[in-house]
Write a structure and sequence with these properties.
The structure is a single chain. With about 170 residues, the chain is mainly α. The longest helix is centred in the last third of the chain and has 45 residues. The protein is built from 4 helices and no strands. The chain has a domain of about 80 residues.
């Protein structure tokens, strides 16, 4: 698929006057590796338009750009730019869930107030901490309940055996 030189140049084989824009050449395409002999990534073709819209070409290209949905570019962050409490929340989520909950809430409030990076990490630490805390609480309740049931069973067994003595 070839790209015309001018954004307003109509395609000669199609006969339509739909404006097109050339792709930037410095953006890496997903799934394309220049090494390794893999074929180049080709974006999907725009739907064929039967009739050309009437009007100013600049208005047409502005309407085209408004209708295209491009994802927002992601910004790269480093550990130095991430909120410290958010990092502590994800670490303590596995070691001590109470500390993970505390640091997660502190990290979320700081990220909200200062705009630091790390909101997702703080939320992940909070979710894991709450889930781990719930798991530990249920385990302790079931464990204590099992011990109480065993003591009750042994108590009832010993009280029954004393009534049926050999004498």
């Amino acid at each position: 698929m070839s790209t015309p030189n001018s954004p307003q140049q109509p395609s000669s084989s199609q006969g339509s006057s739909q404006p097109t824009t050339p792709l930037p050449e410095n953006i890496a395409q997903p799934g394309y590796s220049p090494q390794g002999g893999q074929p180049a990534y080709t974006p999907p073709a725009a739907p064929y338009q039967q009739s050309a819209p009437q009007g100013n070409p600049q208005q047409q290209s502005a309407a085209q750009y408004r209708t295209q949905n491009h994802p927002a570019p992601s910004t790269a962050t480093t550990v130095g730019q991430t909120n410290t409490y958010a990092l502590l929340a994800i670490i303590f989520a596995f070691l001590s869930p109470i500390a993970g909950i505390v640091f997660g809430h502190l990290g979320l409030s700081q990220v909200k107030r200062t705009g630091d990076a790390g909101r997702g990490i703080a939320l992940t630490g909070l979710i894991i901490s709450y889930a781990y805390f719930l798991f530990i609480a249920l385990f302790v309740i079931l464990y204590v309940g099992f011990i109480v049931a065993m003591i009750g069973a042994f108590g009832s067994m010993s009280s029954m055996s004393s009534n049926y003595g050999p004498y």
